[in-house]
Specification:
Blueprint: H1 15-48, E1 72-75, E2 80-83, H2 84-96, H3 113-125, H4 129-141, H5 150-162, H6 166-178, H7 186-198, H8 202-214, H9 218-230, H10 234-245, H11 251-268, H12 271-279
Helix pairs in contact: 2-12, 3-4, 4-5, 5-6, 6-7, 7-8, 8-9, 9-10, 10-11
Length: about 300
């Protein structure tokens, strides 16, 4: 009760003493508050600009999973995330043998919408964050046998984010940016992009780079782009090249970005994935890859 309300660093014997000392303490108080804010900002940046660990390997080919949702698919039957190369190869063999489509990992037959919802319910009961995020996407769009319910979608996104889904935090950020189910809020958009970026979402990281570039903070923008490009997001490489061409980044920066992107491609490359990418057409639904709503 008798501690300075702002800096919390000075204690008084009573309220009268605190009031009497207020004028004398004002400058010292401001310094305490300023230093505390600087320490908090420094700790935040240390977490924000730390390169997140790569995704786990595909459970079938044992090669690192691609960072972007277009290169992988979640299977609700077994809760596994499988690269599209393994799915493409398995389906090609099944077609040649005239067999029904099945999960490449657990061999469960492809479910109907009703069976899929039952599978998701079971996975959500096991606190599977990817299942929560994907079903949130179904509610967001209104599909796969579920009605459109933005409030339910956001509830699932929040639960999934708390359990470690970076994509869910990206989805929440996009909701605040577009005003879908919530009021538009730039600060909350950036806050959830930061949470998504720290969890390894390369698109959220790229968007943070755009925010910093727009604000004139080129050093911070470059840091975001550099992390994103090492996680395989090509637009970040283009942005670093643009900064280099404009004299806002060095040749060493661009060289590091190129090497980082090439290292990522080498880690995720396989002949099966190349074949799958060549054969794939159309776009993925929201549940597999949230729309990139750049600033």
């Amino acid at each position: 009760m008798n501690t300075c309300n702002k800096c919390k660093s000075v204690m008084y014997c009573n309220a009268a003493c605190k009031k009497k000392h207020r004028k004398k303490h004002k400058k010292e108080c401001e310094e305490h508050v300023k230093r505390a804010a600087e320490r908090e900002a420094k700790l935040h940046d240390e977490k924000l600009f730390k390169q997140p660990p790569p995704l786990e390997d595909c459970p079938i080919c044992m090669i690192r999973l691609p960072a972007l949702g277009t290169g992988q698919t979640y299977m609700a039957c077994c809760g596994k995330v499988i690269c599209n190369g393994c799915i493409h190869a398995f389906q090609s063999r099944a077609t040649r043998k005239k067999k029904d489509e099945k999960c490449p990992f657990c061999r469960t037959p492809a479910p109907s919408d009703e069976e899929n919802i039952i599978n998701y319910k079971k996975r959500i009961e096991l606190n599977d964050p990817i299942a929560m995020f994907n079903q949130g996407g179904y509610y967001f769009e209104g599909g796969h046998g579920l009605p459109q319910d933005r409030a339910k979608a956001l509830e699932l996104f929040h639960r999934a984010g708390e359990l470690g889904s970076a994509g869910a935090y990206y989805g929440i950020a996009c909701c605040y940016m577009a005003g879908e189910g919530v009021r538009r809020d730039t600060h909350k958009t950036i806050h959830y992009w930061e949470l998504a970026a720290m969890g390894g979402d390369a698109i959220a990281r790229f968007n943070l780079g755009l925010v910093e570039k727009k604000a004139g903070n080129m050093d911070r923008a470059l840091k975001h782009y550099m992390i994103s490009v090492k996680d395989g997001y090509p637009d970040s490489l283009d942005s670093i090249r643009s900064l280099y061409m404009d004299g806002l980044a060095t040749k060493d920066d661009y060289t590091e970005a190129l090497r980082g992107y090439q290292a990522y491609l080498a880690e995720v490359k396989s002949d099966q994935r190349d074949e799958a990418a060549a054969a794939r057409s159309g776009s993925f639904p929201l549940s597999m890859e949230m729309v990139n709503l750049s600033v």
